User: Which sequence fits this backbone?
């Protein structure tokens, strides 16, 4: 969830004409060998600036077309004039992407476009929290919240051409309503009542799952809700509540399904009542989301990474808002187990990425957690997990190991033996300081690199997206960009 502004700084908009297709990847140069793999490491095939514009994007899901692995889509919170959810598509495996400006956004979400003189087809003052997925038939789905001062709607758009075009929105070509929330004038995140951070998954049987957390007010209280569609995203059933049973916040929910789509799994985390830490829960559905099992607590954080100033910031360095600790699930068809990756500050004070798993048939017995690609020092957070059809496990995460905890990079780690051993490589070709860049916030900027990233795992490659920095236009460092990398394990 991000609190948006009503318009961009005029000076930044004037810079649109100066935008080129190729801008420096980051402001801080990396060593010349930054992308070179050491012996036995994965190989970085390409790193691409996806959004390539003059203002900020962050929060970036990633999806791959099961009928055409060269076709990918990614999304973002788009801080251009449309104030909504941005979208980019690739048809050559991520080498190039459709442009962000002027039309790289989902229509039907806000009342704006990227042209101040052309109205949008939606009702929202702003939109955010993008989610993207492909169906087995190649249909692309994109979910996004639409916010105004009185209500919040969760909307779904569709594309039948791989993400090149989407529903137009408005009365003639409306987006699908997944859920609506009336906050009686106080539905903004800053006022405590709001739905947050939806995620989406499509099973092999075509069932579309959309999940979100519903915050109820100033106190920490939020169950997880899940709604499903069995008609290709044209309608959704009534939302079903999944709750850990405590009065604290359930959030960071993600859904995955097994190989044939017959079973769905949702994971989320929760602050345990009484200040006893933060735990992670799992629940499953055997009837396409109509009902869910009683959530089972499968792990407890030692000290979850919390990057949400001024309320919390528990790693070193300049403060910024960004992804911290959350459970990222994936189903492994090779051993019929559910895996979960997450970051946690270990007993030595260093944030590490951990992984654990359980047999899909028994979610009450989990393996001891192990560290992904252990390193001597350097905080690692924002873990995203993917598993290829051949059983290979892929994890991508922000990493400060290369700069003695001074800057942030992106690392890819992979295991071909179910997490027993790991190989890893530095993916980003430059380090950056997230506290030095941000999104527009009145006459200044707010350091915010988004709350999640994306990953996809294919039999011979993996792809990942994250938020980095690009060339600065104007006087404020607002040009956060979405980056994509392809890696050969």
Assistant:
């Amino acid at each position: 969830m991000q609190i948006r502004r009503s318009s961009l700084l005029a000076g930044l908009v004037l810079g649109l004409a100066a935008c080129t297709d190729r801008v420096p990847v980051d402001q801080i140069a990396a060593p010349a060998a930054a992308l070179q793999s050491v012996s036995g490491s994965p190989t970085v095939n390409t790193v691409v600036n996806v959004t390539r514009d003059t203002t900020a994007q962050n929060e970036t899901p990633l999806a791959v077309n099961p009928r055409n692995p060269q076709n990918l889509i990614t999304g973002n919170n788009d801080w251009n004039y449309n104030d909504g959810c941005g979208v980019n598509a690739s048809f050559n495996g991520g080498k190039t992407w459709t442009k962000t400006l002027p039309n790289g956004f989902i229509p039907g979400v806000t009342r704006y476009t990227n042209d101040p003189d052309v109205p949008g087809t939606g009702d929202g003052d702003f939109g955010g929290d993008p989610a993207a997925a492909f169906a087995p038939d190649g249909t692309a789905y994109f979910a996004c919240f639409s916010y105004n001062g009185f209500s919040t709607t969760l909307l779904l758009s569709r594309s039948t051409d791989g993400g090149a075009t989407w529903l137009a929105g408005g009365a003639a070509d409306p987006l699908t309503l997944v859920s609506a929330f009336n906050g009686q004038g106080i539905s903004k995140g800053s006022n405590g009542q709001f739905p947050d951070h939806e995620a989406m998954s499509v099973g092999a049987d075509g069932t579309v799952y959309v999940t979100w957390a519903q915050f109820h007010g100033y106190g920490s209280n939020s169950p997880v809700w899940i709604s499903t569609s069995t008609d290709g995203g044209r309608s959704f059933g009534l939302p079903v509540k999944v709750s850990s049973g405590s009065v604290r916040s359930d959030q960071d929910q993600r859904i995955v399904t097994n190989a044939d789509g017959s079973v769905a799994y949702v994971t989320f985390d929760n602050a345990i009542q009484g200040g006893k830490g933060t735990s992670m829960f799992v629940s499953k559905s055997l009837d396409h989301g109509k009902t869910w099992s009683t959530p089972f607590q499968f792990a407890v954080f030692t000290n979850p990474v919390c990057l949400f100033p001024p309320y919390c910031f528990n790693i070193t360095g300049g403060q910024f808002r960004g992804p911290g600790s959350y459970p990222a699930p994936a189903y492994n068809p090779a051993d019929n187990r559910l895996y979960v990756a997450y970051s946690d500050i270990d007993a030595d004070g260093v944030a590490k990425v951990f992984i654990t798993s359980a047999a899909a048939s028994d979610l009450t017995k989990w393996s001891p957690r192990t560290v992904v690609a252990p390193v001597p020092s350097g905080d690692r957070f924002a873990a995203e997990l993917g598993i290829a059809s051949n059983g290979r496990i892929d994890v991508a995460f922000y990493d400060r190991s290369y700069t003695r905890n001074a800057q942030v990079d992106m690392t890819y780690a992979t295991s071909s033996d179910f997490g027993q051993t790991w190989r890893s490589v530095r993916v980003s070709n430059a380090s950056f300081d997230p506290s030095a860049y941000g999104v527009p916030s009145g006459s200044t900027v707010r350091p915010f690199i988004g709350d999640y990233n994306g990953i996809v795992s294919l039999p011979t490659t993996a792809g990942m997206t994250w938020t980095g920095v690009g060339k600065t236009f104007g006087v404020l460092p607002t040009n956060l960009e979405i980056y994509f990398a392809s890696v050969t394990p």
Q: What stands out?
A: The chain is about 0% helix and 40% strand. The radius of gyration is 21 Å.
